[in-house]
Amino acid sequence: MTDKDIFTIKPKEGEAWDVVIIGSGPAALTAAIYTTRGAASTLILGGESWGGQLMLTTTVDNFPGFPDGIQGPDLMNLMRKQAERFGAEFVQKNVETADLGKKPFELIADGKKYLSRTVIISTGASDKWLAIPGEKELVGRGVSTCAPCDAPFFKNKKVAVIGGGDSALTEALVLTKYATEVFIIHRRDQFRASAAMQQKVLDNKNIKILWNTEVTEIVGKDKVEKILIKSNKENTSGEMVLDGVFVAIGHVPESRVFKGHIELDEKGYIKVNDHTKTNIEGVFVAGEVHDQHYKQAITTAGFGCMAGMDVLRYLDKSVPSW
Ligand code: NDP
């Protein structure tokens, strides 16, 4: 008998799940490990492109337990395997609507209705865009938000990364493996990224940095040809001929589906009342859809653990301590 045989609990046709977890990043999958092991029937509505931001990154060096680092997608596959080991059911579909005004809660994904006694929202955050002319039009034709996915297309080419956080610096380092020239364009004269990441970039001779510079337009007919830039210190402007633009300016919370039911702050982050509770009894939240401070794989996994335990307490099930 496997753990899956022992732990799997499913509702009968037409009955409600104990918990539906929306999302499939570290918060969602950690929550599922806890709820399944606490004997709650658990469905993960994981989204069509499952796994969250770690699926788009390379080496993760700060997740405990991996002294030599681990590739982001490998880490997510391991987490998914662990959640499924205890019987979590995984549906790789996006939630289209969430009716949280009735009980059991009603969620629609790919046209199918799912009922649940509790919900954990762990939809994470998605890429923020510059919202400048040419950006949307040239996505996939030189404009990208994912260097690990697209860097090989820029072999021997010239590219720019926009942003000054850990994501931008990581993207720039990945790109140096392919592109001949990599520029980081940052709007201030100081990076936001960690000191360790800054040092790696400053030590890399293939990366050039344009400080106090903003991109005002991306120009190209069928592909990126150049960008228009302006210095926000000297009030000068100019252009750069290049082949690729990687936008890495942070993320926005994925909370649109819940607007109207769940209280959001002015930036769209879900408001938390008490630990992982939202304004609706029985609806909990975990990860980057509410956390704007830590935003690390390990903290989001921690929030998932907390939400899983809060769900078990709400359902009056005991929380296993092993
Ligand atoms: P951050 O919010 O940390 O950084 C965003 C960067 O983009 C900032 O430098 C910001 O500038 C700039 N920016 C934001 N909006 C604009 C705009 N409209 N125009 C131009 N520039 C803009 O986001 P990240 O995605 O880099 O990181 C998110 C979190 O994930 C962080 O906590 C980070 O530590 C973590 N992370 C960790 C990694 C690792 O440990 N390996 C890898 C990647 C991310 P300004 O500085 O002026 O505000």
TrEMBL record:
GO terms for biological process: removal of superoxide radicals. Residues 18-299 form the FAD/NAD(P)-binding domain. Its cofactor is FAD. Binds 1 FAD per subunit. GO terms for cellular component: cytoplasm. Transmembrane segments: none annotated. GO terms for molecular function: thioredoxin-disulfide reductase (NADPH) activity. This is Thioredoxin reductase.
